[in-house]
Automatic annotation (TrEMBL):
Pfam families: Glycos_transf_1
Organism phylogeny: Bacteria, Bacillati, Bacillota, Bacilli, Bacillales
InterPro entries to which the protein is assigned, alphabetical: Glyco_trans_1 (IPR001296)
Superkingdom to which the source organism belongs: Bacteria
Protein name: Glycosyl transferase family 1 domain-containing protein
């Protein structure tokens, strides 16, 4: 199984205050696409309470999109024409953020949230919905911004009122906001990418080129028919010497439904026979599966799942006429029938317990 993952945030350059831009302590801004998922209308609705409390406060929305007409209509309906303004697209987001007291992001989802990082780097705290995944990675609640429960318009209003009213708190948050550039600096970004390439070189030296092995059943039986517990034994034969990787071979039995993407793993115990082959044993308690959902009834194909470091193969588990599948068994909630397909691979057929007709007669050629 591959276990090396690297999490690298976007870099945001340090923003030096522009002496020609005056920060307006009574202005909030939104920079966003005007689409339904961004919920710019939430910012407008939440600002209604703010405007009643502070008539000098204003909200600017920068962007464009198919919701623009609806947003303009909402501004008129709420009587906020003197407080909320749609400014269109901007090519200089940093200038917008540097001129604002804080920014808003009432989106329903956000991956990284580059707009959050840009606002913080410019010294503008961010009030955002606490949604997956970006906001909470960048915003520390009540330190460099506020994280509000999604759709909580009152909470968003109160956060804005706090920043407009408590100037000492607002100034402290502005200072904290600028520290984001240290956490996601360009220098750190470069170092992290260098580490990725260094790790890739190390992994290349340790990679395994494993050809697809073959698997066959040597024996199986119903260990406990009442629960559908099925004991399987078999052999895996590799196409190369595996002595170097003996301790790293991982194996399980894997069942996958043929008509839907429903699957599951069952652990297997392995024992090496020689440098190219292993003997395995596994027990599958199938009745529990049938209890979970009616969708689990149907045809299931049986595989072995074999992993060595980076290499992985799913291999269909086959058998021979010398070890035919056991007959079907009836468990409290269904009937389970193992069988070989026309290609000699092992599969299962699971049906309701009230089906009296033998299932074997239905499986020819499947």
């Amino acid at each position: 199984m591959r276990t090396t993952f690297h999490d690298i945030l976007h870099a945001v350059p340090r923003v030096e205050p522009d002496p020609h831009i005056q920060r307006d302590p009574w202005k909030a801004v939104v920079i966003s696409r005007f689409v339904a998922s961004k919920h710019c209308d939430h910012a407008i609705r939440a600002f209604q309470k703010v405007a009643e409390r502070f008539p000098q406060a204003r909200l600017e929305l920068w962007g464009f999109g198919r919701e623009e007409a609806n947003l303009r209509e909402l501004i008129r309906e709420l009587g906020l024409q003197d407080h909320v303004f749609i400014q269109g697209a901007t090519q200089d987001a940093q200038a917008v953020f540097q001129s604002a007291a804080f920014s808003l992001l009432p989106t329903e989802r956000e991956a990284f949230g580059l707009v959050i990082a840009e606002s913080l780097a410019a010294g503008a705290p961010v009030i955002a919905y606490d949604v997956n995944y970006g906001p909470r990675d960048l915003i520390t609640h009540d330190v460099n911004g506020f994280l509000i429960q999604r759709d909580d318009l009152d909470g968003m209003s109160e956060a804005m009122i706090t920043l407009f009213q408590d100037r000492e708190k607002w100034a402290a948050m502005c200072r904290e906001a600028r520290n984001i550039s240290e956490n996601i600096s360009e220098e750190r970004f470069v170092r992290q990418w260098i580490q990725v390439y260094e790790e890739a070189v190390k992994q290349k030296q340790n990679r395994v080129q494993m050809k697809k092995p073959t698997c066959r059943i040597t024996d199986f039986s119903w260990a406990d028919p009442s629960t559908g517990t099925w004991r399987l034994e078999g052999e895996v034969v590799f196409r190369q010497e595996m002595e170097r990787w003996r301790e790293e071979v991982q194996m399980a039995l894997y069942l996958r439904k043929r008509t839907e993407w429903i699957d599951g793993y069952f652990p297997a115990v392995i024992q090496w026979k020689d440098d190219r082959s292993i003997f395995f044993q596994s027990e599958l308690t199938l009745a529990k599966w049938m209890e979970q959902s009616k969708t689990l009834r149907g045809r299931w194909d049986v595989y072995t799942s074999i992993t060595v470091r980076n290499a992985h193969h799913f291999v269909r588990l086959g058998g021979t006429e010398e070890n035919p599948p056991d007959t079907e068994v009836e468990v409290p909630n269904g009937i389970i029938c193992p069988y070989y397909t026309e290609h000699g691979n092992l599969s299962l057929w699971c049906k309701k317990a009230d089906q009296k007709k033998s299932l074997l007669s239905l499986l020819v050629g499947n």
